[in-house]
Amino acid sequence: MRKPGEPAARIRIVSLLVALVIAGCGSSGEWSDDPENVERAWGLTLPSGVTLEHSLYCRSPHFTLEESYHFQFSPSPELRQAFIDANVFVLQDASLFDRTGTCRETPAWFLPKPLLSYEAWSKPDDFTNPEAWVFVDRETGTWFVYSCQL
């Protein structure tokens, strides 16, 4: 036998769950060359003296964080090294990076030269499943960041 108010309670619970899912999906989209992409990816503003040349940030409409990004920064050895150190990256063989294995299509401006033109950094276990990488152009010092979290 049904108790009074039981259907209303179910409706409230379902409504609450739907609202939570919608709230988690609210900030999805794709932003190209938007200065706010650094803040979207890392929750901070770009330090003065560092130029964001290009960026592509994508966030999926999902209740968990699903994002990918590609960044190109002007040469900034101090910030680049701080980024590498903070993420505990180690030097990798750049040829291990699979351009076709990224979770989104790679923009034309990202790593425009052959892979061996770059010094590559990643976490020791990421080279078989590229989750996060830093590439440094050996000639210009321009650096690139790629990450994918699904």
Number of domains: 1
Mean pLDDT comes to 82
N-to-C series of helices and strands: HEHEEHEEEE
> Can you summarize the main beta sheet?
7 strands, antiparallel
Shape call:
globular
Task: Give the structural class.
Answer: alpha+beta
Helicity range? 10-25%
The value of Rg in angstroms is 20 Å
Q: How large is the count of helical segments? A: 3
Spatial order of strands in the largest sheet: 1-2-3-7-6-5-4
Strand tally, please? Answer: 7
Low-confidence stretches at least 5 residues in length (pLDDT < 50)? 14-25
Describe what this molecule looks like in 3D.
It is a single chain. The chain has one domain. Helices cover 24% and strands 27% of the residues. The chain is built from three helices and seven strands. It has helices at 6-25, 37-42, 77-86, and strands at residues 29-32, 52-59, 67-73, 90-92, 118-122, 132-137, 143-149. A seven-stranded antiparallel sheet has the order 1-2-3-7-6-5-4. A hairpin with a 5-residue loop joins strand 6 and strand 7 (143-149).
